[in-house]
Amino acid sequence: CSRPQKVCLCPFLPIHPLKVSTCLYIIQHPAEESRVLRTVPLLAACLPPDKCKILVGRRFSEDRYPELATVCRNPNTLILYPGAEATNLEEVAMMSSSPSVMIIIDGTWSQAKDIFYKNSLFRLPRQVQLKPNYSSQYVIRTQPTNTCLSTLECAAVALTIMEKNKSIQETILHPLQALCSFQLQHGAQIHHSKEHLLKNGLYDKPMPKNKRKLRRMELLVNNVKI
């Protein structure tokens, strides 16, 4: 797991990398590299190296990333990014038996949005999303809404659906659960989502003056998808 011995999570990782046919391309915003409690290293430790490829950056041109460009043009490639154009992954998985490549953007919501819309390559693959019936177990980090998932959780759910194997999700989430448990035992607090805090009158930070950000908060309170 590449963590210090005192906080080692190796006992919670699978003894052997999971056997999967789906290949993940994790597009990681550079800011994620400096986060202490990031989840992508745990995800990579659960999968074979050739099934979890991590590319760090903000801009991805066809000239600089020819392999990624080829992947994006492959008809079997999917990109996990919610929106009006996205199909539920369960529906896609039911209709396809071919091994797929899935692209997942790793960053905050604003960082992911910036990467998705400013890189034309990422609008070539079929856009898919997860149904909003999963709750995040990454309880030591504040999420925008109750159904927002970390990159590791998105990958765990997506692989479970694509591989039609429920044990994959449990195996990948095991080190995340151990990480959260360890942090809570050593003084960390459970972080409720911003949606939960706003709805229950527990949000203790100053409200934003920016009208766009204020509108987003109003939509969270009113349970409107944003």
For the report, how would you describe the main beta sheet?
Answer: 6 strands, parallel
What are the secondary-structure elements, in order, as H or E? Answer: EHEHEEHEHEHHHH
Class from secondary-structure proportions:
alpha/beta
Supply the CATH architecture of the largest domain.
3-Layer(aba) Sandwich
The portion of residues assigned to helices is 25-40%
Number of structurally distinct domains: 2
User: Which word captures the global form?
Assistant: globular
Strand order of the largest sheet: 2-1-5-3-6-4
CATH topology name of the largest domain, in short, is Alpha/beta knot
The amount of beta strand, in percent, is 5-15%
Overall pLDDT score: 80
Count of DSSP H/I helices? 8
Family: Belongs to the TDD superfamily. DTWD2 family.
Catalytic activity: a uridine in tRNA + S-adenosyl-L-methionine = a 3-[(3S)-3-amino-3-carboxypropyl]uridine in tRNA + S-methyl-5'-thioadenosine + H(+)
InterPro entries: DTW, DTWD2/TAPT
Domain DTW: 1-188
SSE inventory with pairings:
Elements: E1 23-28, H1 40-46, E2 52-56, H2 66-73, E3 77-80, E4 87-88, H3 89-95, E5 101-106, H4 109-117, E6 126-129, H5 151-163, H6 166-185, H7 194-199, H8 211-221
Parallel strand pairs: 1-2, 1-5, 3-5, 3-6, 4-6
Helix pairs in contact: 5-6
Domain DTW: 1-188
Family: Belongs to the TDD superfamily. DTWD2 family.
Protein name: tRNA-uridine aminocarboxypropyltransferase
